[in-house]
Amino acid sequence: MRIDAKTFLSMLISGANALENDKEKINNMNVFPVPDGDTGINMTLTLGAVRKLDYSYTTVANCSSDAAALVLRSARGNSGAILSLFLRGFAKEFKDSVSIGVAELAAGLRRGCEEAYKAVMKPTEGTILTVMRCSAEEAESALKCGKYGDHNIAEFFARFTKAAETALEKTPEQLPVLKEVGVVDAGGCGFVTALRGMLAALKKKPVELLNKESGESAGVADFSEFSTEEITFPYCTECVVEKYELYEGENKASELHELICSIGDSVVFIEDEKVIKLHVHTDHPGRVFEKAGEYGMLETAKIENMRKQHSELLAPKAEGKEAKKEEAKVVAPENTYGFVSVCMGEGISDTFRDLGVDTVIHGGQTMNPSTQDIIDGVRSTPAKTVFVLPNNKNIYLVAVQAAKLVKDRDVIVLNTKSVPQGICAMISFDPETDADSNLEFMEEAISHVTSMSVTHAIRNTTIDGEKIKNGQMIGLINGSIDCVANDAHTCLSKLADKMVSPSYVTIFYGADVSEDSAVAIEQMIRTKHPRAEISTICGGQPIYDFILSVE
Questions:
Q1: C-alpha pair distances (Å), 239 with each of 60, 91, 133, 270, 365
Q2: What Å distances lie between residue 429 and 23, 339, 403, 440, CA to CA?
Q3: Against a cut of 0.90, is the pTM above it?
Q4: Mean pLDDT across 406-418
Q5: Closest by alpha carbon to 544, among 488, 493, 490, 464?
Q6: CA distances to 134, 271, 472 from 187, in Å
Q7: At what angle do helices 128-144 and 77-93 cross, to 10 degrees?
Q8: In a 10 Å sphere around its CB, with 0-12 CB exposed, 13-18 middle and 19+ buried, how is residue 447 labelled?
């Protein structure tokens, strides 16, 4: 049995459902006992994008291409980004496939693994990458033995899934910190979970969601307070174009992209070697189709009047409704430089804006923005060159992938791993200097700042021989656990002792910290470092009671 488009999509959705069902278990595999485990959520939201597809595909090529594009734009966190690139490798390998058998599947696994590894500068053994690689190697080995053919493709899939499970079990032997706390790699676990879900669908027993109300797609939007007059561009316009031979290849339809950006908003533009898929809200759907027709034959074309749809969807307000998410606005790149920063907390957001950041994306630990969120942030920034400050090690890879998808302006992603690093980078920026020099200045500034933070433990564990009890306060320096105490003041006192001749200390206190407590911390640090210039700001951030920038 070869895998056709319908079966392939069923496998992806089943894998997404399996991740959704097990996301909390995967979250709880976080190595450090801090309340920021979000690998399960990130991978669920990443692969869950495939639920937007329907079963009308006639080739695995088109299905895998659209799935990869959706998943890439929905990717969150490092594990989500790696998973999306793995599927991108599938799509590249299956680009000419109506259906796939064991040979194509083995090649797809290898290509997916290669795409994922290329995105990580320093691959670490004992992570999701290792699990992916072992499954790909086993698939190639199984193919060579001659035992498997298209007639027993489910057994073939089960064999490399078993290899992935075995590789996952060995991750604690490759990463000592996993062994110390008694867990396997969370990203690797998510990948194995997805494979198991895909295998179940291949066996005609796809995984169903245990909680039908979970996931982003389960909510029902409330349009009752939204006026039709607020719909700037009334026609939701979509089409899929099969390219003429003259325009085959990537980045051959820039004029079409520029047109739809200039006559509408809510733009999504996906261009592959042979296909263009676009979405735009506009006043001129005819111009879109006319221009698109210059590049190839229109496979599908759709226009919907959103004002009419809105009128039909009006309903009484539902209790507990979620806030409406505003559509991203695309603005012209008028300025030379612009900035996008990812952070959480009103006070921290205001600080970045005061330093010149144009667009703040609300996110951080437990709330990693997607690739599309960052693309939207960049394209709503009125600048030709946009610097992106992820301010979190788990957001950097997604930001890098987003930068590659933006074609109408230059995007530079700084490897800021914390809010203090992002703030320090902004302070060092010189608007009179060229982009390359500024990048050098900002990276140099990042290297001279120390990030300290305090949060609470959510479970009992042992790290580097240090016993940590649930509820204790944990002090971190540059993301690594440094000290443990029974209260925040003692924990911060220990951190303050690690400051080496600081010149500037900025204290951001969190949403659950009183102003009096913050003042007491400031006085304690002043006593220990009387020559340092100290500022205290209500950051309003969750999870971390205190974040300190030490220069």
A1: 19, 20, 37, 11, 37
A2: 40, 11, 20, 10
A3: no
A4: 94
A5: 488
A6: 14, 29, 26
A7: 30
A8: exposed
Q: Which two tokens stand for residue 222?
A: 């409330």
- pLDDT surpassing 80 at residue 250: no
Backbone angles phi, psi at 355, to 5 degrees: -85, 0
Q: Where residue 231 falls among pLDDT bands split at 50, 70, 90?
A: low
Phi/psi for 411 (5° steps) reads -120, 125
What number is the average pLDDT over the span 149-158?
96
Q: How far is CA 285 from the centre of its chain?
A: 31
DSSP 443-482: HHHHTT-EEEEEEE-SS-EEETTEEE-TT-EEEEETTEEE
Give the closest residue to 40 by CA, choosing from 76, 84, 87.
76
Alpha-carbon dihedral sign for residues 280, 284, 285, 286: negative
Give the integer Cα–Cα distance in Å for 88 and 84. Answer: 6
Cα 229 to Cα 72, 288, 311, 331, 461: the distances in Å are 33, 23, 11, 20, 56
Strand partners, 455: 474
If you write DSSP's letter for every residue of 340-404 in order, what string do you get?
EEEE-SHHHHHHHHHTT-SEEEE-BTTBPPBHHHHHHHHHTS-EEEEEEE--STTTHHHHHHHHH
Determine the pLDDT at residue 367: 83
Over residues 28-77, the pLDDT tens digits come to 887 766 666 789 999 999 999 999 999 999 999 999 999 999 999 899 98
Q: Could you identify the residue written with the tokens 């485990």?
A: 37
Query: Which token pair is 253?
Result: 């339809």
Residues 202 and 462: their CA atoms lie apart, in Å, by 41
pLDDT confidence tier of residue 331, bands split at 50, 70 and 90: confident
The set of residues, in sequence order, having a beta carbon less than 8 Å from that of 263 and lying 6+ positions away, is 280, 282, 283, 284, 287, 288
Residue 33 and residue 484: Cα distance in Å, rounded?
11
Tens of pLDDT, residue by residue over 261-277, are 888 877 777 777 788 88
Residue 378: burial class (beta carbons within 10 Å; 0-12, 13-18, 19+): buried
Q: How far apart are CA 468 and CA 466, in angstroms?
A: 6
